[in-house]
Structures are given as structure tokens and as C-alpha cells.
Amino acid sequence: MSVRIKMTLDALNKRLDEKNMLVVQNEERFLGKLQFRFNPPVTDEEIKKLPFNIPSDYEAFLKICNGATLFDDPENGGGLQLLSVEEILEDYQYIDYPPDWFPIGYGYDGCGSL
Fold first, then answer.
1. 20-39 b/e (C-beta count within 10 Å ≥ 16 → b)
2. What pTM, to 2 d.p., does this model score?
């Protein structure tokens, strides 16, 4: 497992309050509380369902949390959705992606696919 991924997620989790909220300053310099939600880890069996190879760091992330919602404003929405293996497979069925490309997430602020 990638030590970098685990250390990064551990450091983020330490900064979250009991409701998984973090005070963040936005581009207009206003402070707001944003929510973070992490799914339970993926199993090796689930990773094997992917019809393509994934980078080892991304696999390490999925083994810690199988998808997540980051920087979600409880009142206004937005944020970033990192897809679970199930959501990747569902998305992959309906969209014709270029070779060696697969979705890992969406920005809810108009950023589109990641």
C-alpha cells in the first residue's frame, strides 16, 4: 500500500471534526465548513472487476476508501465526488472513453469528469 496515500488521508481525517467537517477558506476569502465522506474500503475481488489496470497509488486509495465526497458544502452543494469501483464500472458502461482512460470522479462545480 502506498504510504503517501495513507499518510495524506490520515492527516486529512485528523483535521476533521466529529461531523467530518473542516473549516476551509474559499477563493473570496470567506470561511466555511465543508463536509468529507469516505466510503468503506474496496476488496481485492471488487478491484478485479475493473476491465483495465489502475495505478498502484489509486488502488491503494481504493483499499483505504472506495470512493469519497470531498469539500461538500451542506447548504450549497458542490465539492468533488471520487467514484467507487461500482460507480466507475457503471460510468464506463455508458460512455465511450479513449483507450487507457477511465473515470475516477466528478466536480460538482462544473469541472466535469476527472
1. ebbeeeeeeeeeeebbbebb
2. 0.82
Q: If we measure between CA atoms, which residue out of 22, 38, 16 comes closest to residue 71?
A: 22
DSSP secondary structure letters along 47-78:
HTTSSS---HHHHHHHHH-S-EEEEEBTTTB-
49-67 per-position pLDDT tens digit: 998 888 889 899 999 999 9
Question: What does the CA dihedral 111, 106, 2, 10 come to, rounded to 10 degrees?
Answer: 90
- pLDDT surpasses 90 at 70: yes
Amino acid 61 reads F
- How far is it, in rounded angstroms, from Cα 24 to Cα 71? 9
